[in-house]
């Protein structure tokens, strides 16, 4: 008897239960594997992650808790043809975001043309007046971008959100691949998968290409971290090590002869490019939060004088605003002259009276998000929320409607995870990582697949109980 059509798209199996072409070679290999051996390999992977220190911090009300990133050994596989289509859409969107940011901090033509409401900038904390009239070295605002995608069908990918400020997770993409190759080296002789291990080298080259004009032939790159208690500290240290760059904290830096210099065993050495993993608010106590010790005092003056490149540029967070996200189709068309290749998720802007009324009437069927929220925090998933949670969120919506947007509850695609009972489908998203330099756009093949490990859950964030998978893009 024909099985019922699944509610959501299964990336490994079609409607009849047959293996889809992208998974064919992998499925043949998997069928030959002993399940006891696979369980043992899964336990070994967890041990490796713990020994390597691949953890993140979860901040609770009282204390931070360090957790292991759950890793699932069943890869997420995308065909070469599918990836080519996705790459075109990703590049188009990233180019549009960079052009949008330049315009916002200069003539604001998109506002003058009536394509973006001026109210979205007025009083928006992510818009930095300090960047008005200033163009970063090479004209690049978004040096590293993470575009979160969800899949709802065979050729149906949509952008869930843009991460143009300080996208994280690339270290897990790299460690997932290294772990898979260590556990199953023979598998990669059966399935030809595009490489991701060269990302640190490409990142270093891309950042160096964005150095100020006065930089030396071999620009000095450093990674600025808030410190060991930051939730993504492992990634900061990992990327600095892999790039051969120095990992620095604010206390290691100072202004010297019009440059930002870092403390070394041979005295202070000037830096050309600073890959910062510190939010705008804490970057410069002379310009932003005067109580911050996370960034060097005076860096914004050096930056505006052309003495250093900051990646990503201060003020890029305005492109992460979820209310502005809802205008991305118009933004893409305005700056590229083309229709968007990748669609947005339908979005209701609660700041608009009619949209707010619709959201309040249908709150049980919608996902509500804060416009500046991230990590799965500050959101409501209507279908899985209690009556009390909905009532509480309704009060928040009525009090500050401009702080929220709403989206339909999507039927996210599924990829199997390995459980003691066998393979079981779980919902996933995908964060490809994009590098931008004056030389062009460089998209890493694959990215970070995040998976909701709980049955039926749509929340894939690691801080909310999600895990990760290796993401494969097949060779032609």
TrEMBL record:
Gene3D superfamilies noted in UniProt: 3.30.1490.270, 3.40.50.11290
Pfam families per the UniProt record, alphabetical: CP_ATPgrasp_2
Domain spans labelled Circularly permuted ATP-grasp type: 75-452
Domain of life: Bacteria
Protein name, UniProt field: Circularly permuted type 2 ATP-grasp protein
């Amino acid at each position: 008897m024909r099985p019922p059509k699944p509610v959501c798209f299964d990336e490994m199996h079609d409607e009849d239960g047959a293996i889809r072409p992208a998974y064919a070679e992998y499925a043949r290999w998997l069928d030959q594997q002993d399940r006891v051996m696979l369980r043992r390999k899964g336990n070994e992977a967890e041990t490796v992650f713990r020994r390597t220190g691949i953890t993140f911090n979860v901040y609770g009300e009282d204390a931070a808790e360090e957790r292991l990133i759950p890793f699932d050994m069943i890869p997420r596989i995308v065909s070469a043809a599918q990836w080519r289509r996705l790459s075109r859409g990703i590049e188009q969107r990233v180019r549009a975001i960079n052009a949008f940011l330049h315009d916002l901090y200069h003539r604001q033509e998109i506002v003058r043309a009536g394509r973006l409401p001026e109210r979205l900038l007025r009083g928006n904390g992510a818009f930095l007046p300090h960047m008005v009239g200033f163009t970063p070295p090479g004209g690049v605002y978004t040096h590293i971008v993470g575009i979160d995608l969800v899949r709802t069908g065979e050729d149906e990918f949509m952008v869930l959100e843009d991460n143009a400020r300080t996208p994280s997770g690339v270290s897990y993409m790299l460690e997932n691949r290294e772990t898979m190759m260590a556990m199953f080296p023979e598998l990669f002789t059966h399935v030809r998968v595009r490489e991701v291990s060269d990302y640190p080298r490409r990142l270093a080259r891309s950042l160096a290409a964005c150095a100020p004009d006065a930089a030396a032939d071999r620009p000095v790159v450093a990674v600025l971290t808030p410190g060991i208690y930051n939730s993504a500290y492992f990634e900061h240290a990992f990327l600095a090590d892999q790039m051969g760059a120095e990992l620095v904290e604010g206390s290691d830096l100072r202004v010297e002869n019009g440059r930002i210099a870092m403390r070394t065993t041979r005295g202070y050495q000037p830096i050309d490019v600073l890959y910062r993993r510190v939010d705008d608010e804490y970057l410069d106590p002379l310009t932003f939060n005067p109580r911050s010790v996370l960034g060097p005092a005076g860096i914004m003056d050096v930056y505006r004088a052309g003495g250093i490149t900051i990646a990503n540029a201060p003020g890029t967070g305005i492109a992460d605003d979820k209310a502005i996200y809802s205008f991305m189709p118009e933004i893409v068309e305005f700056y590229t002259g083309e229709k968007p290749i990748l669609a947005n998720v339908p979005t209701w802007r609660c700041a608009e009276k009619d949209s707010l009324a619709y959201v309040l009437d249908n709150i049980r069927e919608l996902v509500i998000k804060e416009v500046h929220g991230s990590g799965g925090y500050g959101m409501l998933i209507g279908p899985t929320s209690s009556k009390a949670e909905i009532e509480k969120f309704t009060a928040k919506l009525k009090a500050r409607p401009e702080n929220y947007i709403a989206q339909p509850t999507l039927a996210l695609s599924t990829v199997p995870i390995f459980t003691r009972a066998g393979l079981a489908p779980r919902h996933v998203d995908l964060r490809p990582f994009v590098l931008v330099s004056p030389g062009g756009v460089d998209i890493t093949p694959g990215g970070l697949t995040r998976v909701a490990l709980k049955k039926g859950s749509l929340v894939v964030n690691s801080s909310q109980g999600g895990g990760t998978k290796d993401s494969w893009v097949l060779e032609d």
